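Reopening this ticket.

The earlier resolution said the output was attached, but the attachment link was broken on my side. Pasting everything inline this time so it's all in one place.
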Amino acid sequence: MSTRSTATLNVEFQPLTPDRWSDLERLFGERGACSGCWCMFWHATRSEFDRLGSVGRRQAFERIVKSGQITGVLAYSDNEPIGWCSIAPRETFSALERSRSLKRIDDQAVWSIVCFFVDRSVRHGNLMIRLIEAAIRYAQSRGAKIVEAYPVETEGHSRASADLYMGVASVFRAAGFKPVKRKPRLMMRYIVEDLHSQLT
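Inline output:
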């Protein structure tokens, strides 16, 4: 399948609600996104993540989605799901809350972007920044004031797609995020009150 630029596509964004679960399944495919993760990496302990396996992770994430919990935003083109961005209040990601390298820097209420998955056909078509912008708008609509992210610094070097599941720092910078911590892992924040000036 050839790569398509999203600049010419009519892309719409919707929160992942229980009735859209089948769309996420279709996007993730038989491999369950990356190696059967089913976007459970930051929702489970490492031992639980390994024990569940791909099938168990799918079932676990389906339960989360169908409970009505906020989980993220889907991108669609011609009614087909083409991209995913996981965003929710930080405290809903239990593994993130336990992380030593990404521990909280203060007691501010933040929403966290922890994962992207993009259909192979649009993987180099600038969909990531549009997903970030859609995720910010969604978080703002739910009362968020700060959006936090933990992307990878590529520094001009090529990286495997699986290594970039938390996003690319340069794309977050283009979306208006600023670094708030660099070691041991990069942490960036976006002040949602600046939404209008950044996205118009």
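Reporter confirms the inline version is readable. Residues 195-200 have pLDDT under 50 and may be disordered. The longest strand covers residues 80-89.
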